[in-house]
Amino acid sequence: MARRTVMSLLVLALLAALPAGMAFAGEAKKIIRISNGVNDVHPAVLGAKKFKEVVESKVGARYEIQVYANAQLGDDVRATESVRAGTLEMVIPSTSPLTGLSKELMVFDLPFLFPNSQVATKVLYSPVGQRILDSMSSKGLKGLAYWENGFRQLSNSVREVKSPADVKGLKIRTMENPLHLAAWKALGANPTPMPFSEVFTAMQQRTIDGQENPVVVIYLQKFNEVQKYVTLTGHIYTPFLLLMNQKLWDGMSTEDQKAFMDGAIAGRDYVLQLNKEMTDTQIKKLREFGMTVTDLTPQQLKVFQDAVQTVYTQFEDRIGKSLVDEIRAEVKKAGN
Ligand code: KDG
Q1: Nearest to residue 223, comparing CAs of 311, 281, 270, 290?
Q2: Residue in 33, 35, 38 to alter for ligand 1 test, most ligand atoms within 8 A of Cβ
Q3: pLDDT tens digits, residue range 249-271?
Q4: What pLDDT band is residue 95 in, cutting at 50, 70 and 90?
Q5: Is this structure's pTM higher than 0.90?
Q6: Which of 88, 129, 181, 281 could lock 82 by a disulfide, CB 3.0 to 4.6 Å apart?
């Protein structure tokens, strides 16, 4: 047998003996870029860094995780399209701007659906929550986990809001989501959808009066510099999705997939912990910065809840009535 043929056979035998996905010394690591729209002090980005730490501690010989904040690789919709196309590896969008892709995700946009974060996480981690996450695979996206974005609160630069009457006529930025638009219209606002990266400038230039986001976003993105009033409406709880290109996931070894799942869960729990730790202190700090932060009484909150009930009937068929019922039953179960 020619020497060259013997050499080739030896190389082939060596390759077959290597565990799947193992890299040769010196072989380039696979770069996994994760995109998010918030800044690098936000829990989602810190969670992504935790994900990096865990994944690289297990399979760092083969993968390098790179975290990109501030929508550097595109806002939620664009970055998610890049992940689907395979030109970006991972993204952490809110569910709300992705409802054009999956109408089932809109179930989480129903106002006042979850009473608190514990119930929300129980429902998200339940079989029905997992089914919705898994259904992303039909869109070319592997859903690794739900992470918490959180309860959204209204901020604005015009007046203190205690009732829907105070919302009347305010130009409020919403995420790109028809249900959010309908809910704010029902409250009397003049809502306008916009990607997250444009929100600060729009408030600064007064093209919008306000926006709605969890306290950690309002505080960490320094919205207090361009907004005067926050009302703790907690009107919608938005999850983040930790998504990967499905083909990339399918091509990974079981060991690598496990390392990525471990990282996803560690990141998820870290985000929950940070949100919990940060929210109350940040409300205090926003007050110290001179913002008027308004707590609503249960009666005041009920007026908001009643005013947006119409969106349930308006969107039930679009989301799927059986899914809405299933989620509401799961909410009830989780609250007991
Ligand atoms: O990538 C995440 C953020 O861009 C976004 O989802 C944050 O809640 C958000 C918003 O209001 O757009």
Answers
A1: 290
A2: 38
A3: 999 999 999 999 999 999 999 99
A4: very high
A5: yes
A6: 88
CA distance 65 to 49: 9
Type of residue at 201: T
Q: Which residues line ligand 1 (CB under 6 A)?
A: 36-38, 75-76, 92-94, 149, 175, 196, 213, 238
Residue 173: both structure tokens together: 């930025």
**How many Cα neighbours within 13 Å face the side chain of 189?**
30
Report d(CA 255, CA 252) in Å as an integer.
8
Q: Which residue has the tokens 């007064």?
A: 206
Ligand 1 mean position to 159 CA, how many Å?
24
Q: How far is the CA of 214 from the centre of ligand 1 (A)?
A: 10
What is the rounded distance in angstroms from the CA atom of residue 52 to the CA atom of residue 32? 9
Atom of ligand 1 nearest to the CA of 36: 1
- Integer Cα distance of 124 and 118 in angstroms: 10
Nearest residue to 76 (alpha-carbon basis) of 99, 48, 43? 99
The helix/strand count (H/E) of the chain reads as: 14, 11
Dihedral of CA atoms 67, 70, 72, 74 in degrees, nearest 10, equals 110
Report the atom number in ligand 1 closest to the C-alpha of 91. 1
- Name the band, by pLDDT with cuts 50, 70 and 90, for residue 26: low
| CA 212 to chain CA mean position, Å | 14
Look at the alpha carbons of 211, 280, 264, 73 in this order and tell me if their dihedral is positive or negative: positive
* Candidate from 34, 90, 94 with most ligand 1 atoms within 8 A of CB, to mutate: 94
Task: For 232-270, give one letter per residue: b (16+ CB within 10 A) or e.
Answer: ebbbbbbbbbbbbbbebbeebeeebbebbebbbebbbbb
CA of 35 to the centre of ligand 1 (A): 11
Q: Is 241 helix (H, G, I), strand (E, B) or coil?
A: strand
